[in-house]
Fold:
Amino acid sequence: MPATEKIELKPIGFVKTKAVGKEVRDPSNVSKIVLRQDLTEALDGIEDFSHLFVIFWMHEISKEERRTMKVHPRGRMDMPLLGVFATRTPHRPNPIGLTLVELLRVEGNIVTVRGLDAFDGTPVLDIKPFDHWDRTEDVKVPEWWMRLEKERSEKRKANK
Amino acid sequence: MPATEKIELKPIGFVKTKAVGKEVRDPSNVSKIVLRQDLTEALDGIEDFSHLFVIFWMHEISKEERRTMKVHPRGRMDMPLLGVFATRTPHRPNPIGLTLVELLRVEGNIVTVRGLDAFDGTPVLDIKPFDHWDRTEDVKVPEWWMRLEKERSEKRKANK
Structure:
């Protein structure tokens, strides 16, 4: 196994959104990814995809939070205590965010997307087109996940 | 927009596989992710998911390759010239790999998966459970993508 090494990344751009707090988690939230000007041509052809993965850096997570090993999903004590890799918590050794978004439009170095749950000013590390290899059938998720999702969906219905 | 900043990551583990060259792209390829010993308990509960996203660092990509702006998919001159963000090429500003894999088993700090297209020794940055929020209907991909995929699927059939 190779020696432990440090990896250095530079943001390709930043998230711009008016959403604050819990609003960023609203699936209908529209955000802009403002790409570095020098990378504009690296977007050519992206508009032919309907969906993208956005990989971003959750820069507000502290060094201490990065040392978290176990969490209750969404801080809910009625949920099991789980290893961080069994959850999507931002408290993880490398606080990398990964979200599937809908591509709305591309104008110059600005990519407008729907469904990006990242705060204003978040550094973006990569953008990848979503394709059929990212899909799978027969997905199995734990009981606790289905329970959380059921609550969330009922809340959404009640708010409509 | 925040000033350009550097982001530092430390691998959470490394890929172990006997596959070499093009073999790593075989969807049936089985690999191990050997997690750092100090992170073993962060895996608790992951075995209840059937699929994971593995986020890894394509460490063999050179500084020059990271400056690539445009590529022909798979180096094929009969394919359009596209911005790197419109493809899954490893030649991108931050050579981060993202692959959806099937989780086979977890033993201590070793996670065995099927379908990870990463070479032996590749640093792993994060592991995330795949859930229903990572799925979408009505995916649109470009014509060139469908053409490549059709060829690939015909090749697979011919090899059987």
